[in-house]
Structure formats: C-alpha cells, structure tokens
Design goal:
Helices cover about 65% and strands about 5% of the residues. The chain is mainly alpha-helical and about 375 residues long.
Length: about 375
C-alpha cells in the first residue's frame, strides 16, 4: 500500500512538472512580442504594462510600437527637451492623480512595472511630445506614423498585422504611452489636449457651477461631467485657434497687460466666490495651466479688439431705430448694437480660422466639424 502511494505521488509530481513545463513553454515570458529596429518588448514586460497601465494587450502593443518609432526619430533629429517640459507634464499628472485621491509617488512605485521603467517612459514621452508638436502643424499624426513605419524594421509575432502601417493610426499619447489619461483627446496645429487635462477642465467647470450655488446631485454627476467635457473642448478650440492667430499677427503679452487683466478680473471672479489668488492656486487645474490660459485670453482679447471691436461702426439711423424699438437711451442702444456686432464678428472670425486649422478630436469626432463647435449663430438662425 505504501509503495503504491509513493508511486502515485511520484507520478503526480512528474505530471505537475510536465504540466508546468508545458504552461511555461506556452506562456514563454521571455518571448519577443514586438520589436522596432532591434529594440524588443518581451511578453513579461507586456504583461507588466497591462497590469500597471491598464488597457488590453493589443492597444498597448500598438502604442509601444508607435512610441518606439517616434522616439527613434526624435533622438535621430536631436529634438531638445528642457527641465521645464518635464515639470509641466508632471504638474498635469500630479493634478490628475490628486483628483483620483492618489499621488505620483504611489503611481510610479506601485504595480509590477518597475518605477525606473515608468519614469523612463515618462521622460521619453516628453521628448516625443516635443517632436510630435512640431510635426502636427504641417501634417496629420497618421501621416507621420506611416512615414516612420516605412523607414523602420517592425516585427510583431504576437500581432503580425502591426508590422505594417494600417488599420488607422494608433492613439496619440503625451508622456506615458498606453496610459489612458495621457491619450490625446483633441489637437489644433500641434497644440495637444490630453484626456487627463480634459478631465480637470470639466471638473473645473463643475466646481464653478457649485461655487455659484447650483446643486448637482451625485447621481447626475457623470452625465454633467460628460456635458462639461464637450464644453471644455469647445472652449479649448476657441482659445487655441484665436491665440495662435494672434501670435502669427505679432501680438505678445507684456507685464502691463497682465497687471491690467488681473485688475479687471477681480470683479468677475468675485461673482464666482473667488479671489484672484484662489483662482490660480485652488481647484483641479494646475496653476501653470491656469496662467497659460490667462495669458492666452489676453492675446485673444488684444487680437479680437483690433480685428473686430475697432472696426465696428453704428450709424445714427441704427441708433435711433434701436432706441425706438427697445425704449433704450442713446448710450444703451449704442452699447447693444456694438455688442451684438462684436459677438457676430468674433464668431465669424473664429469660424474663418477654424476651417484653416489642422484639427483632430478623437474624444468627440463630430467636433472636427465647424458647426459642432461653433454654429453660425447661438440660436441656429442665419444672420441678417
């Protein structure tokens, strides 16, 4: 009996070894999943990326291949990076993680992917971002990736279809490639809006609504944030398109401009229960992003004043007709006429510039269409 038990145990042990060997050979964590010009990613590394960054294997493999293509080209061209580039990118990551009640220290340290690997990915992502921004002003991301595929040796035993460009361009990321918050949600001529920044912008709009005393029930918060994501993209498009044109026209922000704009901001912010200091230092968005928005607004205001405001003329007949129609006094009638024409001119200026810009919006593809971002009129009617 004892001998039979020992024999059975030995057979089970051998079977376990064989099964383990078969499993190990099937999984082969050392096998090459993909390679780009000799740089390889193993199955083990892919597994760790899936567990650390989320997403599925196909998405992460495709993202890794494209990242390596872009990285190789950026290095070859000697694309520069500055310490401020990493600081700016990390500020956004920090703010997004804070909105999820965690920290960069925890994010980079936790998970099977080593902290050093994540930090290296982040640094490489900043370099790639500088390279891509320069390219997107003249061509689409898909065209850039297609060109790089044509110059590289790409192998992908796991997903052979990724060895050639096709099936649509891989998502564009900023910083950590394959991490969904760093996916680009919208772009205008090389200016990139990540999903993380869009999250923070929509949270800022929601925060402002609550500051103004409106109640948003918790059960409606997701739906409300989805609405504000769309609104935040529209606002971002508007500011980016007009800011870029202002810079092309030689406009710049001076210290005097900033001082004047800060003084003018006190009263409007007070209506939102905010001081100027609170506006910049509190809330979901990083302070650096708020300052960039603030300076962009100054540029836009200077540009639209020249292109729209300074060109408005109202006739005596129009003023008297408005006074007769509304019962307004002369000053109120003039202000109303000028304001209506400024709104119309502002909208028409933006529309004329938007159609000439290189716009992409993976988050809301319909917003690549002008009328989805800025209808001819708020009420949908035609101007008279």
């Amino acid at each position: 009996m004892g001998r039979a038990v020992k024999t059975a145990a030995a057979l089970l042990f051998v079977a376990a070894i064989v099964a383990g060997g078969v499993w190990l050979w099937t999984k082969r964590p050392w096998r090459i999943v993909a390679s780009v010009n000799g740089t390889a990613m193993t199955a083990r590394e892919l597994d760790m990326r899936v567990q650390s960054l989320g997403g599925d294997r196909r998405v992460l493999v495709k993202a890794w291949i494209v990242k390596e293509l872009l990285l190789g080209e950026a290095v070859q061209r000697g694309v520069p990076t500055a310490q401020g580039d990493e600081q700016e990118a990390m500020a956004l990551v920090t703010a997004w993680l804070a909105s999820r009640k965690t920290t960069p220290e925890r994010f980079f340290a936790e998970g099977p992917l080593p902290e050093a690997s994540k930090m290296q990915d982040f640094k490489e992502g900043v370099l790639i971002n500088n390279f891509v921004k320069g390219e997107l002003g003249t061509r689409g991301f898909g065209d850039l990736v297609k060109e790089l595929y044509g110059k590289a040796v790409v192998k992908c035993p796991e997903f052979p279809e990724f060895e050639k460009f096709g099936g649509g361009a891989a998502p564009l990321y900023v910083g950590l490639w394959g991490w969904d918050p760093m996916r680009v949600a919208a772009s205008v001529d090389g200016n990139l809006l990540t999903s993380a920044e869009l999250d923070l912008r929509s949270l800022t709009l929601l925060d402002d609504v609550r500051r103004m005393g409106r109640n948003v029930p918790k059960e409606r918060e997701y739906e409300t944030l989805r609405h504000y994501r769309r609104e935040a993209v529209k606002q971002w498009f508007l500011k980016q398109v007009l800011r870029a044109e202002a810079e092309r026209n030689g406009f710049a922000v001076t210290q005097a401009d900033e001082k004047e704009a800060l003084a003018k901001a006190v009263a409007p912010l007070k209506k939102h229960n905010l001081t100027v200091t609170q506006f910049f230092e509190e809330g979901p968005l990083p302070e650096s992003v708020k300052w960039a928005d603030f300076r962009a607004s100054i540029l836009v205001n200077k540009f639209t004043k020249r292109e729209v405001g300074d060109r408005i003329n109202v006739s005596t007949r129009e003023i008297e007709a408005k006074m007769s129609e509304t019962g307004m006094n002369r000053k109120a009638a003039i202000d109303k006429l000028r304001n209506d024409r400024f709104v119309r001119g502002y909208r028409e200026l933006f529309r004329s510039l938007f159609v000439k810009a290189r716009v992409s919006c993976p988050e809301f593809p319909e917003m690549e269409n002008l009328d989805s971002v800025s209808p001819p009129r708020p009420d949908g009617k035609e101007w008279k």
